[in-house]
Amino acid sequence: MAIAVLNFFLLHAAPGDPAVVLAGEAGAADEQMIAQLRERFGLDQPLYVQLGKYIAGIVQLDLGYSFRQGAPVIDLIAERLPATLLLTLTAFVISLSAGIALGVAAAARVGKVSDSLLTTLALLFYATPLYWLALMAVLVFSVWLGWLPGFGYETVGAGYGGFARAWDILKHLILPALTLGLFFMAVYMRMTRASMLEVSTADFVKTAKAKGLSGAVIRRRHILRNAILPVVTLAGLQAGQLVGGAVLTETVFAWPGIGRLMFESLAARDYNTILGVFLVSAAMVILFNIVTDIVYRIVDPRIGAKV
Amino acid sequence: MWNRFRSNIGAMVGVLLLLAVILIAIFAPLLFAHSPWQMVQRPFLPPFSMDGLPLGTDTLGRDVASQLAYGARVSLLVGLVSTLVALLIGVPLGALAGFYGGYVDEGAMRFTEFFQTIPNFALAIVLVAIFEPTLASITLAIAIVSWPPVARLVRAEVMSVRKREFVDAATLAGLSKPRILVRQVLPNTVSPIIVMASLMVATAILLESSLSFLGLGDPNAMSWGYMIGAARTVIRSSWWLSFFPGIAIVITVLALNLIGEGLNDALNPHLSRKGKA
Amino acid sequence: MSTTLAIEHLTIGLPEGADRPFAVEDVTMSIEKGEILCVVGESGSGKSMTANALMGLLPPGVTVKAGRAMFEARDVIRLPEPEKQALRGASIAMIFQEPMTALNPLMRIGEQIAEVFAAHDRYTQSERREKALALIREVQLPDPEKIIRAYPFQLSGGQRQRAMIAMALALEPKLLIADEPTTALDVTTQAQILKLILDLRERRGMAVMFITHDFGVVAEIADQVIVMREGRVVERGIAADVLGNPQHEYTKRLLDAIPTGTLPQARQLSDTPALEIKGLRKVYRTGGGLFKPVREVRAVDDVSLTVARGEVLGLVGESGSGKSTLGRTAVRLVTPDGGQVLVGGTDLAALSDEELRKQRHKVQMVFQDPYASLNPRQRIMGAITDGPITRGIPRKEAEARARELLEIVGLGAEAASRFPHEFSGGQRQRIGIARALAMDPELIIADEAVSALDVSIQAQVLDLLRALREKLELSILFITHDLRVAAQLCDRIAVMQKGKLVEIGTVHEIFLEPKQDYTRQLLAAVPGAGWDRQGAA
Fold first, then answer.
1. Nearest residue to B213 (alpha-carbon basis) of B192, B189, B181, B235
2. C284: which strand partners?
């Protein structure tokens, strides 16, 4: 809700009269049109009334109208949202599972060559711009090697159905999901490794050793379970970045999601759509956070039990 | 501390790389005879095919190497200034929240959380799009999306320092609260802030390049992200136009991350020992 | 009797750059079946390293250089790792100092006990559960069915230590290594755990290697004693001999340092009060969210007491008794919910923040943790003169006084220009005392001021406080959990329990004619209590 308020003020902070801006978008900026718009959007009313109306609109899922696309913003977003959800969720699952697995592996081999190799790789991915990695991936795997499709969501006009279509989408999904996931995988891996090493100095690990447990059991049952908590917290906090990163990935791969929609609207100066996408992406982050919160509660018995 | 830093090979590599980038940025006008906007040759000249144009020319026949050098200026400037601005927002807010606790903390943290939940890249796009892309608006937008972690870090540090007994001792000495915060508590939170700042410069450079890539860069400043964005459509025929700016970003960001890690190990020896144990 | 463990000429090397080359040097000791061997020493004596070496738990970089440890005809130090692992937990078990952190916070107690059986492939799933229940019963934890499903955070410190012991006993080890297992516990809990260990030794006939810094604990349970200092054994023998007739200088010093022996002569006290506390109350409220009920803890519940000018009043209690809250309320670091704190006629509890700042100097505090009580980024001079200068004393004068005070507390004036990290724990406490004195307070509150120090250092700081008491006519509220320490320094002792004042009286009254049950319990729980009285007689 606060995001909606922020959105509203951002719209009003835009240089110039919103009505002129909106009229400009509509393509006809004569006086009459502007006056009409002003009346229609209540721009001649005091600010708080406008705010109230805007919020009321959002509650009813009315995000305004895109003149450029000639459709309500909510329809545009609804049409694109599944593709974005598919992409971000896949990338999230890949990066989190691979990141934790590699972090555990690196921590178990700390100081050895394989650890240095993994940490260096992570550092490298951590420093690589997402969109550039995406471009290079297209160049290598799509243009040069021709293994995977580099653009789009599915083969246009192929008319696949059922399983064949799913397979087609999957092939299109691999590159975007991987490039989006790699950066976050690096983040989670570094975090997991550091957290594993931190926990491995804890007293209860010494207790476990004194009980005669084997190294593998100690790592799995004692260290990992405790080390994973801060990683889950971080993953929740990073969800916002993941959604932001989707804008870039979708742009490069022409993935028909809301990120791509945002990019197109940027070029067209379609403010209503930009803000609508922004609002929806913020809502997605909240969704991600609810998920991590649930995971956290499952892993840590102390939460909820503490009364 | 300096000795610990110096013995860290990664960190020293980082320092050397960053120094090289800084020198190139400063001496760009001396190193390259023509400005990055000037057409010098036919377009799409591949790298190493002509003397004086080691990295070839772009879609408009401009010198790629010169563009890279000037791009370094923008990246470093935006990275540095936006980090400073982010610190100016985050440090006071986090310090007040951590030190005074209660409603101040509650309010400040709600505010911070709100900014942290917003997808920061999307917010940066919205901000820049609305305020017309200039170097100043880009810098400000990056600062606005990157201060929340600073506030959280400073708050956590201040809270842990505040509980230590020397703060009670200062209270008993009759020192005023603001004075205790500034003179006794904050100096003890400097090391983690420095570490975070060095990593933030790296993130800011990535953010700036991403914005420019989407075409939200300052039209009057040559930047790496812009170069990649402009070359995107011709990637099939002229891959080097996208490749070299990307490498420049990776090197700069990597250097900053290495330095940040080195600082972290040097300033928090306790943690680094764990890391190497 | 048969020998369970024989350590011969054990030498453990420290990594390069440590303050000495060996953690443990040429140490030989043996433990017979059913015997309790106490290894005594101060921090850095190498006593824990010895134990860790036996378990193969040495920290990285620390290695055994020479010697062997024979257990069941095998050298446990040079066994290959799988065999060591089979030995750990099964034949040799270990318990640790910190019950709070020694248990995995995310696993149920029952799981953690059953895990020992699993690690050594014993019993079926349901048998493991039965065994775990039996063990929980054996270490006298209440309501075993509930404990087995509990997580560590739901247990108290003493209960966690019992759970640790249950785990250690699971496979009936021949040797139990206990590394300061009672140090983190309250005296009454400590007494219970010590009794439990004695019982178990009796019932199971296992050998116990008990590591401690506390000769009181030694007097309670030891059959044999080994005294270590800087990695070497300085004295060994039967407990009664070592305690009654120590041979080595160091042992004598340690024993002398223990606050025992005759009670001090009572002094004439003045009638003018330095501090009067009347009906003081402080309630802490936790929780109180949407779904959480508010929980109230009465930290200080209607307490009244007086400290006379020139008197040292000991405030004794276990953790959670409210003694620290009382101390912090008396300096108004905590604002009370009710009652008065009168210092020289002014009620500190009623002052506004601004007035309070001007009156702060009247009561000063010496803190518990020598490492946290000085700002690491401020020179000693600044730490001492901040207060006086804020009060309006000219800088020159304040600095001269600071140097003088540093001399008085035995550090020398040149200490002023140095940073805290250059000083040891005991030296830092002296700085803390100088800082308090610099304000010319009417009362000093010492909150567990010697608890974090090794016994010999503790004795030196107590000597300093005694000397200052005579010289400067100091009034001190001395807060401690240790009755023995209180007896050494104080004129009167106040005993607190659960926020209430239980009893107050002269040291003689409290020690020789305690009126309340709780005071008697506390006295009985003091480790080495019986032996103390013998010494005193």
1. B235
2. C297
ipTM of the complex: 0.81
Chains in touch with A (3+ beta-carbon pairs under 8 Å) read B, C
Q: Which of C88, C98, C151 sits opposite A211 (nearest CB)?
A: C88
Q: How many CB atoms neighbour CB A138 within 10 A?
A: 24
Instruction: Show residues of chain B in contact with C383, CB under 8 Å.
Output: 166, 169
Specify the CATH class of A74-301 in words. mainly alpha
Closest among B81, B111, B72 to B200, alpha carbons compared: B81
Q: Which of A132, A129, A237 minimizes the C-alpha distance to B205? A: A129
Q: What is the pLDDT of residue C133?
A: 92
Low-confidence ranges of chain A (pLDDT < 70): 1-55, 57-63, 67-68, 156-158, 303-307
Please state, in angstroms and as integers, the Cα–Cα distance from residue C174 to each residue in C33, C131, C177, C201, following that order: 8, 18, 10, 10
Read off the pLDDT of each residue in C307-333 and give the average, rounded to a whole number: 90
d(CA B219, CA B137): 12
Section C80-97 average pLDDT: 89
- Beta-carbon contacts of residue B170 (< 8 Å; ≥ 6 apart): B180, B184, C375, C386
Nearest to C429, CA basis, from C366, C364, C383, C365: C366
Cα–Cα distance between B220 and B207 in angstroms, integer? 18
Residue of A nearest to B255 (CA): A127
C163 neighbors C153 (Cβ within 8 angstroms): no
Residue for token pair 């850095």:
C44
**Domain spans, chain A:** 2-62, 74-301
Task: Name the β-bridge partners of C12.
Answer: C24, C64
In chain C, residues with a C-beta closer than 8 Å to the C-beta of A206 are 57, 96, 102
Is the separation of the CB atoms in B10 and B37 below 8 Å? no
* List of chain A residues whose C-beta atoms are within 8 Å of the C-beta of residue B274: 197-198, 201
Do the chains contact at C119 and A207, CB–CB below 8 Å?
no
| pLDDT tens readout for residues C270-283 | 778 889 999 999 98
Q: What are the tens digits of pLDDT across the range C462-500?
A: 989 988 888 888 899 999 988 888 888 899 999 999 999
Distance CA C221, CA C204 (A): 16
B38-44 long-range contacts, CB within 8 A, separation 24+: B38/B62, B38/B63, B44/B234, B44/B237, B44/B238
Which residues touch C356 (CB under 8 Å, ≥6 apart)? C332, C348
Per the listing, tokens 């309320």 go with C329
**Could you tell me the domains of chain B?**
2-43+53-271 (1.10.3720.10)
Helices (H) then strands (E): counts for chain A: 14, 2
Whole-angstrom Cα distance, residue A7 to residue A276?
A: 9
Strands C63-71 and C74-75: antiparallel
Q: Which domains does chain C have, with CATH numbers?
A: 309-335+349-536 (3.40.50.300)
Question: How far C110 CA lies from chain A's nearest CA (Å)?
Answer: 14
Contacts of C94 in chain A (CB under 8 A): 210
The CA-atom distances, in angstroms, between A146 and each of A136, A251, B99, B239, C230 are: 13, 20, 58, 16, 70
Q: What is the pTM of this model?
A: 0.82
Question: Are B168 and C367 a contacting pair at CB < 8 A?
Answer: yes
